[in-house]
Design brief:
single chain, alpha/beta, Rossmann fold, three-stranded parallel β-sheet, three-stranded antiparallel β-sheet, 10 strands, globular, binds glutamic acid
Amino acid sequence: MKTRTRFAPSLTGYLHLGHVLHMGWVWGEARARGGEVVCRMEDHDLSRSRPEYEPAILADMEWLGFVPDLGISAGHAPHPSPYRQSDCGAFYGEALDFLAEKGLVYGCECSRKQIQARQAWAGGELRYDGACAKKNLPLVGNTVRFRLPPGAVEFRDLEMGDRIQSPESQCGDFSLRDRDGQWTYQFCCVCDDIRHGINLVVRGADILASTGRQIRLFQALEHAPPDYLHHALLTDSKGRKLSKRQRSESIAALREAGIPAGELLAKIP
Ligand code: GLU
């Protein structure tokens, strides 16, 4: 089967050098396997996404020579598109209906504050304790949560080796849609990886913790999960992850300052 991976930027900021390293991984792994790259826009979060980042990201990709084989590109960005999450609410709704028919989701009326108050906060992630799991609340107007099956998830990461994760103790029954009807990253990502035919996910190590819960969603949607490869992130001189919101450190700013693309690529370790 031909390898198909994806580049899936969130529309929450400009691309920076960390994305260049990431695109090198994505296109590099695809090309090394004779495979293809899909580009999709992850703008499911309407409160944080801004549409003007899309053409900016596409212009940077084109300038650097990262041309996708499928999905949205500088020369092909129709509205609506099955490769732009904000256009695809109906599709996520159908996937949610499928899970609802199997009894795998439930409505939850707990606020973040209430969940925090019930949990001895030890840093890290907020874990949902399942307080609404048996209340049979309506899905509309409430947070919709995924009923996680018990037990650990094991997978082999192509870069990081064998991993065991326990979504149940990391985050508990996580949310697929919030009470305002906004879809979550975890749900959109899995629905899209399925319909876009992704069989290799290449992404930064900052998302490694999501993989176990995403595998659980693949299983619930009755689809085999893809292979995963999580790569190390580019950090600044203090070891911090680069931020997307600093225009001054963006690829666009470097391009406008007249730095040639080749010189910029040479900065990547
Ligand atoms: N949209 C995510 C980001 O820009 C990528 C998510 C993924 O690759 O699964 O960080």
